[in-house]
Amino acid sequence: MLILAPLLTDMSSVHTKQILKRQGLAPHKRLGQNFLVNPRTAQHIVRLAQLSPDDQVVEVGVGLGALTRPLAAAVRSVIGLEKDAGIIRFHQAEKDLPPNVRLVHADVLTVDLDSLTETGRRLKIVANLPYSISSPFLFRLIAHAHLMDFAVVMLQKEVALRLIAQPGSKNYGAPTVLLAACADVQPLLAVDPAEFHPRPKVDSLVVRIGFHPLPERVQLLGGFDRALFTKIVHAVFRQRRKTLLNGLVSAGFNIDKTALSSCLTEAGYAPQLRGETLALEDFIRLTHVLAGQDCSASFNNQLAAS
Question: pTM of this prediction?
Answer without folding.
Answer: 0.87
